[in-house]
Amino acid sequence: MRFASIVGARPQFIKIAPVSALLRQHHEEVVIHTGQHYDYMLSAHFFKELSIPEPDYFLECGSGTHGAQTARMLAAIEQVLMKEQVDWVLVYGDTNSTLAAALAATKLHIPIAHVEAGLRSFNRTMPEEVNRIVTDHISDRLFCPTETAHKQLLAEGITQGVSVVGDVMYDTLLHVQPRLADQAHMLLATLGLTPHNYILTTVHRAANTDDAATMQAIAYALNKLEMPVLFPVHPRTKACLHRYHIQWEPFVQLIEPVGYLDMLALQYAAYRILTDSGGIQKEAFLLGVPCVTLREETEWIETVQSGWNILAGSNWQNILNAVARPKPQPPQSNPFGRGDAARRIVQSWQRRGE
Ligand code: UD1
Ligand code: UDP
Predict the structure, then answer these.
(1) Ligand located closest to 202 CA
(2) In which band, very low, low, confident or very high, does the pLDDT at 352 lie, cut at 50, 70 and 90?
(3) What ipTM is given for this predicted complex?
(4) Which of 27, 82, 294, 317 is the most buried if burial means most Cβ atoms within 10 Å?
(5) Nearest ligand, CA of residue 126?
(6) pTM, to two decimals
(7) What are the pLDDT digits (tens) for 17-50?
């Protein structure tokens, strides 16, 4: 069987890593990088750090408005797929790269497998929500990370080709987990921080960064925390912080985006995590660190139901109240599977003798 795996943005590199490693033991794989993310610390670094095979195609589609960016990716991916004659296209998550890849494949009648299918925030103003819905409805094989995602697909009438395999990001996390304590020890010393005595934050959702009042409210809350705050800043956020002239208290430390092991180590040793990232909400849960989500809704609802994640939105008082909440009871179970999602995904083709 010959696969085209199509990725383009940071969280997709973390998702493809375990799947690609196993897929190549049994099948042929062509890796296509759309170039949605292109800064070294958002892209090439992860290929090296996670030993992801070098992309066979780097399409250099870059940034732009949603329509222009998605259109460039669609046209470029189509050219590659027409040449490569693959049996399946594998797509990950919910970015514009996911949508473009799925559209290119379906127009060429190539079956699509969607890793991280069935997630919904029920907020269609969020670009990722539209990407997920369209991708799920044109996919032939849908790999759900959770039971909730599976139920959602059934509710939308998608019943064929669906399986719950667990979350591939958990596979990647387990791979580095034994190294986190040492890495945190080393890294915190260089940052002048002490374990469990700082708050880690990330903000990059358009709904937060593109509205001055919302970003200012979040910054106001961070400035009121009276505890060291470490903030690895996404490039889109960097531009907005500059544009809105946001000033910081001395205990808020802004740094460039960090690599995967470093990010996990920083999460592992944090007192609390404040984020609007999808992946980080899950990682916080898996690492046992209480999370405050800077959004009104989440597609990772299990983290909220267990008490380990609080949806605070961008209201500064809600954010401060959520940070002050005591640590919840340890979760009864892990809704994200057993850390063998990649194996289950790859085995789904072997089971069918394909
Ligand atoms: C994208 C995804 C989002 C995901 C996030 C992960 C969509 C719609 N959004 O958002 O789901 O959570 O990636 O990080 O696909 N930029 C750089 N260097 C880069 C990449 C981007 O400077 O390497 C800047 C550009 O100014 C660009 C902006 O960041 O316009 C936004 O980049 P884009 O890829 O469009 O969206 P993200 O916010 O990164
Ligand atoms: N991440 C990282 N370095 C950073 C910020 C995030 O390695 O500076 C990792 C994070 O640990 C998680 C993934 O990137 O594994 C999440 O990506 P992001 O927040 O960009 O996207 P989302 O998950 O919201 O789509």
Answers:
(1) 2
(2) low
(3) 0.99
(4) 294
(5) 1
(6) 0.98
(7) 999 999 999 999 999 999 999 999 999 999 999 9
Task: Give domain status of residue 331, yes or no.
Answer: no
Q: Which domain holds residue 232?
A: 177-324
Provide the number of structural domains found in the chain: 2
- Which residues is 239 bridged to in the sheet? none
Q: Which of 50, 191, 280 to mutate to test the pocket of ligand 2 (most atoms within 8 A of CB)?
A: 280
* Ligand 2 site, residue 298, Cβ cutoff 6 A: no
pLDDT tens digits for 60-77?
999 999 999 999 999 999
204 catalytic? Reply is yes
Q: Which residue has the tokens 């001395």?
A: 250
Ligand 1 centre distance from Cα of residue 276 (Å)? 14
Sheet holding 141-144, edge to edge: 57-58, 28-33, 2-7, 88-92, 112-115, 141-144, 162-164
Report yes or no: 342 and 18 within 8 Å, Cβ to Cβ: yes
| Same domain? 97 vs 204 | no
Which of these is catalytic: 37, 204, 234, 245?
204
CATH number, domain with residue 284: 3.40.50.2000
Whether 330 is covered by a domain: the verdict is: no
Residues 33 and 146 placed together within one structural domain of the fold:
yes
Q: Do residues 256 and 153 both lie within one domain?
A: no
In a domain, 329, yes or no: no
